[in-house]
Structures are given as C-alpha cells and as structure tokens.
Amino acid sequence: MSAPQPEPLDLKTQMTRAAASLHKPSPAKATAVTSDLSIDETLLLHSVGWEPVDLVFGASIVSVPAGVWNWGNGEIVQASEAHTKAVEEACRHTERQCSHVKGFGVVGVGVDVAIHPHHIDVRLLGTAVRPTKPNAAEKRQFDTRGGFISDLSARDFVLLRQAGWAALGLTFGTSFVYAPRRSAGTVLQQKGQNVELTNLTTAMYAARESAMERMQASALSLGGQGVVAVRVNEGPVTFASHSIQFSAIGTAVSLATDAHQYCQPQVVLPLDDILVQFDATSLRH
Amino acid sequence: MTTYSDVPSESEGRLSAPAFSSGLTVPDFAACLEMGLEPVGLVQGYCVMKWSWYGASSPYMRGMGPLRSNDQPRAYSEAFQCPHGFIAGDHVTWGQNFEQTLVESAWEQGFLSAYTRLLEEATEAGGHGVIGLIDTVRPLTDQAVIEFHLLGTAVVVRGAPGPPDGHPWSTYLAGQRLVKLIEAGFMPVSVAATLASVQVWPYCMTEYYLRGQGGNFNWSPRFPTAEIEQLSRAQIAVCHLAREHVRAQLGSDTLYGATMATSDHEANGGSILECTLRGNRVRRFKDFDPLDPPRPTVRLT
C-alpha cells in the first residue's frame, strides 16, 4: 500500500493570500537576507534544514614582478606563488565575511581568475548559509574547522549531505611552467615532419603534476578524504605562449557519518519525446 | 521623480483597450493563469541619462578634491601614504580609494525614473503587479549617454485587493519560478537594483606593483610577489557598498536570485571599479514550512 500523497496547494488561494499580505506591515525585527541562489536552490536548502544568510565575497590582487614571463627553464615559481597567494587571500576575506554574518559555510562560490602580465586577480562570490537548527555534528565541525567555502551548487551540496559527506573547503593547485626551447638542430630536423612536440607535452605534464599535488596537499591540510567537482584549466598563457598554465580547483570533502549513505535514486522513464538536437535537413539549401 | 502625467496619452488608449499584451512566453503565461494572475498589458519604462564630466576640473580629478570625504561623512574613503618620503617631483606620495556618490546617485536616478514610469503604466492598465521584468542598461549613441529600459507584464491578482498605496509590486520572476516562490511562502515586493562606484587613485606602491616592480627599491633581479593592497581593498569595498545599498532598500525583507557584476576601466589617472547588484525583494507571508527533502531521480532515456 503506497503512502498517502500530500494535498496539492491551491495556488490561486496562496497567490491571493500573498498579495493581501502586502497590506500588513513588514516584521520590524527581521534581518535582511541577501542571496544569489535561485529560488529552487533556496527551497532545496530549506528542505534539508539550511538557509541562506548573506551574499559574501572576497578579492585579492597580487603582483607578478617584471621579467617573470621571459623564457626560462622549469617552473615559473613567482607566477605560481602569486596565483596561490591571490586565491588564499580571497578565500580568507570570504571566510571572514562568512563568520561575520554567522554563516556555517559558503556555497555556490563563483571563482573568477584573471591573469595579467604584472598581476593576478582573484574574485570569489557566493552565499553564506547555515543550518536553521544546527545539530551537534554541525556545531562541532563549525567550532573545530570554522566555516567552509565550496564551489558546489546548492543542489550538489544537498546531495553531498544526503550521501553522508561534508564539504570542508575550497582546494586548489596551480603551476606555471616554461615550455623548454627546442634546439636549432631539432627545429630543422622536425621541419616538414608530423611529430610530437615533446617539449610542450613535457611542460604540460610538469605543470599538471605540480598543480594536482598542490591541490591534494591543500585538501589534506583541511582534513579531507577527497576532492569533488574538480575543474581544470590548462593551456598557454595568453600573453606568453611559451608559458604553460595548469590550475585545478575543487571542494575537499570528508565522511560526516560512519559510512557512505546510498541515496537510492528513483528511476524514472520520461514519456515526452527527446528533443531533436541536430536536424540534418537544415543543412540543405 | 516623475508623476502619473508622464504616461503618454497614446499609451492611455492602448492600456485601457479590452485586449491584453504580454511579454510572457507561453509556458510562463500558462503558469501565470494557473495561479490566478491575469495579464493586462506589456508595460515599459525608459530614461536616458547624460553622464557628466568627471575628469579635468571636476571634483573627481586627482588633486582637485583629495581626501574629500568631509562633505559626505558616510561615503567610503580610504587614503594610502607613501612609505618612502620625498624622492622626486613625480613620485606619487599619496593615493586614495573613494566612493563616487554622484555617479551612484545619477545611476539610481536613471533606474528609478525608468522603474517609476513602468509602474505608472502598470497602474494605468489596472495592474496589481509586474512580472517577468527585464532591465537593460546600455550606452546610447555614445559612452556618456546611458539608456535605462525596463519591460514587464502587468498582471491582476483575481480576488485580491489592489496593492497598498496603489503602487504595484514587481519581480524579475515569472512562470514556474514565481509559482515556486509563492509555494515557498514568499511574496514579491519589488525588484532591487543598485550601482556602486569606487575611484582608485594609485599611490607609489600600487604604481610600482602594476609596472612589475617591487615597492621597496630592492634592485635585485627578482622582486617578490606581494598583494596590491589598495586594489584588493577597492574590489572588496565596491562589492560591500553595492550590498549595503541594496540592504538599505530591503528593510527587513529578503533579496533572492541576486546577480552581482563588477567591471573596471581606466579613468582620471587611475581606475574606476563599478559593481551592479540586482535581485528580487521578497517578503514571507506564511510561516516557515519547508518542503520534504526531494527524492533523487535517474532518467532512463
């Protein structure tokens, strides 16, 4: 026997009631809340006992000394340092704001990074959230680790919690590496050949390994068991194409329960037609 | 601010006609009817503003009004002093970040004029509220002329009293998003939008760093990396100001679905940072009643 279905809301009555409520004075003691979450995300957070508190942000601009981008060998240490410092400072600003508004964490953080020849700019923007009635585990996590910063959407944050995991913080790793020059002999030898440019492949691997190691170290320092939703950005630097950049950013997570909780998703079979993604007839003239 | 006579006489005839117009998509239109909202007309508001000169001889020119926060004690202003002492005539011994209140109030005037005109049209059409609002702010003809354009669909709530004081409520939302907002127990009050503007006059340290030099006359071949504090503080200040401006509009209400965008450009021997913040001001009309945690689904396709 199936569980009784909840009564559907009478939307027209709700709308009439809502419109009539504007005639009442607004509650004087309530604190204004600002949030960049959509209404869907807000409802999701409410359904698991969390609420948005305030829009929070952080920014940091760190200098990159002249001459750093000139061709050399190995890692471009100062560029990697500047990037790391900028992300760390921006995170620190965001965490401070989160704790100022009594948030337990920040979700849906947008990370905006701009690399210029003499400075690297990092901006973070997200919504501080907190449990409406924090349980003992949530209080303990907040007291011991402070507020977390996560680039997961509210939907992903809710799913993660349902699976028994907790978001611990933003983890990142970046490395800039010079692509070694090819010798004049190699250039002449490879002219007219279809060959792998091993100098670029090697640079890409070197940058990748350093960045991933740094991200892993950053996750471990937060006490994380893993990193989810890692996004990587790699390729040559726009204004210095002999410099290869690799950056990885994600959210460190750890088990908040004894074991992973299986979400048991319900399988659904949609009956609507699949949208036509590509229509070959449109190519005919 | 405008008055109700601003609605053109041609519009009055169109707005009182028995047929309605609407900017809603068909799904949004269906959702609107489902919740007892009847569209009465597509309403718009315009305002074209000329931006004044903030360069030479204006108070916004470097040196003309330094440390000018005394006349507006609540405006943001922060000074940065050179750590080196006298070096040369062209050495910039001080810098400043300050809020450009004239720019902010001009933007607010343009937005509010267009918004008031949109509400006037909605009132003329007999609407209780405006849904699916779209606002555009863009340069018109040249950089110093800005057009504010707001467009939305005026609606009547069947069976409900008219809006308090005759001022229609408004929201950027329409369709299923508006349905979910009402189901969640929130009523739209108005849209909220603001601009914050901060002028940065760099001091010597900022200039050195932006040229890729160190700030401490260390002539070693490698300068260390360092945070450019003046610029970082300006970035945070401009976002903070935008949030506080919107908070001042909210009273005890809530801002949902906010979008914040920052930009910067060089001007007046420094740079100008601008931050716009928009969102839906909503008010709770019933007690907190969260949905049950949703059940995850997997589609078989």
Description:
The complex is a heterodimer of chains A (285) and B (301). Chain A is an alpha+beta fold. Chain A has a single domain, classed as Translation Initiation Factor IF3. Chain A has helices at 11-21, 39-47, 77-100, 136-145, 154-162, 184-190, 198-221, and strands spanning 33-34, 50-63, 105-115, 119-131, 148-149, 165-178, 226-237, 240-255, 266-268. In chain A, a hairpin with a 2-residue loop joins strand 7 (226-237) and strand 8. The longest helix of chain A is centred in the N-terminal third of the chain and has 24 residues, at 77-100. Chain A is elongated. Chain B folds into 2 domains: 8-51 and 101-184, Translation Initiation Factor IF3 (2-Layer Sandwich); 55-99 and 192-285, no CATH class. Helices cover 26% and strands 34% of the residues of chain B. In chain B, the strands form 2 sheets. A 5-stranded antiparallel sheet of chain B has the order 2-3-7-9-8. In chain B, strands 1-5-4-6 form a 4-stranded mixed sheet. In chain B, a hairpin with a 1-residue loop joins strand 4 and strand 5. Chains A and B meet through helix 1, strand 1, helix 2, strand 2 and helix 3 of A and helix 4, strand 7, helix 6, strand 8 and strand 9 of B.
